[in-house]
Amino acid sequence: VAVRSNGASCTRLHADTTGGKNWQLNMGYRYFHSFRHFVGTEEQKQRVDDQTDVRNYQHAVDLTVIRNINTRWSVAVNLPLLSNRRSSLYEHYGNSSTNQNARQATRSIGVGDLRISAAHWLLDPLLSPKVNIQVGLGLKLPTGDYRYQDFFVKNDSTKILGPVDQSIQLGDGGTGISLEVNGYYIF
């Protein structure tokens, strides 16, 4: 399972009705642990029972700085900080489940892919303080290392440096465009 940082820009405050320019700093944290295996919609529960499952542990801290330009426009920069760990049998010791040291881990830690975005409230917040919709457009830049390497244990005396699994890479190596829609309604 490839889970990337989801960006904290969607946590922007509701429409600013003060009319002033201001800054906002958001920090979001996400923990993700995966261990279940599927072939299509069929879960392979025996993988957990047999302890042959692959286990990913991911921690992501999203730092977002938002500049409100006026009551309707804002720009944001999101920088994810990532720490990942993946343990498995098949990537180490040549897929030998008989070796008691077969389960080993690889890790990746660092900066993920940077995102820059702009957002606009569709309704004037001064005229519509109870409900609003915000649309945004962003650019994702490939700042995260998509070729991160760690050591894989081949036997009791040999480790080989190689790329970690795609699911714990810090970036995906591509530039992308993101579209977002946020809204609120005050009951």
Q: Nutshell version of this structure?
A:
The chain has 187 residues and is an all-beta fold.
Description:
By secondary structure, the chain is an all-beta fold. Helix content is 2%, strand content 52%. The chain has 1 helix and 11 strands. It has one helix spanning 46-49; strands at 22-34, 38-39, 42-43, 55-68, 73-88, 104-111, 114-121, 131-141, 149-155, 158-163, 176-185. Strands 1, 4, 5, 6, 7, 8 and 11 form a 7-stranded antiparallel beta sheet that branches. A hairpin with a 4-residue loop joins strand 4 and strand 5 (73-88). The longest helix has 4 residues, at 46-49.
Which key terms come to mind for this protein?
7-stranded antiparallel sheet, mainly beta, 1 helix, 187 residues, elongated, two-stranded antiparallel ribbon
According to DSSP, the number of beta strands is 11
Order of helices and strands: EEEHEEEEEEEE
Low-confidence stretches: none
- Structure classification: mainly beta
Major sheet: size, sense and barrel closure? 7 strands, antiparallel
Mean pLDDT, to the nearest integer, reads 86
Instruction: Quote the beta fraction.
Output: over 45%
From the N-terminal CA to the C-terminal CA, the straight-line distance is 38 Å
Q: What is the C-alpha radius of gyration, as a whole number of Å?
A: 21 Å
User: Which shape, going by the Cα principal axes?
Assistant: elongated
Number of helices: 1
> What level of helicity do the residues show?
under 10%
